[in-house]
Backbone:
């Protein structure tokens, strides 16, 4: 009985592999140094669920192995390794990446990088505490008021440092109490 089960399992797996090999579009793309890509940023949505968000643009800077590439985020300047299955082409290397394009992508994507937190306030119309954020690579005229609760989830160290540094400010005291920051 066990031999038969082992044999059947082997045959089923072999048939699955053969089926996958014959499907069109199942090959992993190969990337060259200099290619512009988007990479999958994985983050935890709930305790048991993960979400993927396409981040970038990034440029392939090195090949670690046949399937692993070193990529540099063109907006944030961060480097990371990424598996080929977590990359997709953004444009070919003839794309002219200007400073204006990078600032546009930084401003219009969800991947803003916090430079520093400016001040706090309570917004009575929205009924929430907000923190003014200065974004990396943007002018101070483009600073924005963001929900403090969201910032605490996204950049907890920056928010807690801001609260410690501005502990005498009345708006910061109220924010600290509302968000239960210790």
Residues:
């Amino acid at each position: 009985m066990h031999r038969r089960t082992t044999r059947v399992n082997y045959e089923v797996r072999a048939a699955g592999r053969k089926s996958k090999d014959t499907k069109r579009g199942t090959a992993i793309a190969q990337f060259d140094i200099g290619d512009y890509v988007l990479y999958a940023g994985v983050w935890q949505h709930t305790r048991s669920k993960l979400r993927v968000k396409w981040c970038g643009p990034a440029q392939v800077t090195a090949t670690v192995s046949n399937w692993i590439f070193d990529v540099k985020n063109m907006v944030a300047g961060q480097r990371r390794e990424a598996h080929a299955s977590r990359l997709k082409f953004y444009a070919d290397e003839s794309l002219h990446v200007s400073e204006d394009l990078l600032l546009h992508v930084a401003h219009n994507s969800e991947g803003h990088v916090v430079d520093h937190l400016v001040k706090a306030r309570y917004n009575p119309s929205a009924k929430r505490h907000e923190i003014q954020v200065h974004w990396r690579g943007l002018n101070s005229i483009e600073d924005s008021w963001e929900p403090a609760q969201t910032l605490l989830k996204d950049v907890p160290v920056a928010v807690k440092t801001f609260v410690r540094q501005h502990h005498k400010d009345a708006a910061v005291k109220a924010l600290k109490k509302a968000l239960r920051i210790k």
Summary: The beta strands are 36-44, 50-63, 68-73, 79-83, 87-91, 114-123, 128-135, 144-147. The two ends are 62 Å apart (CA to CA). The chain has two domains: 36-98, 114-179. Residues 2-22 form the longest helix (21 residues).
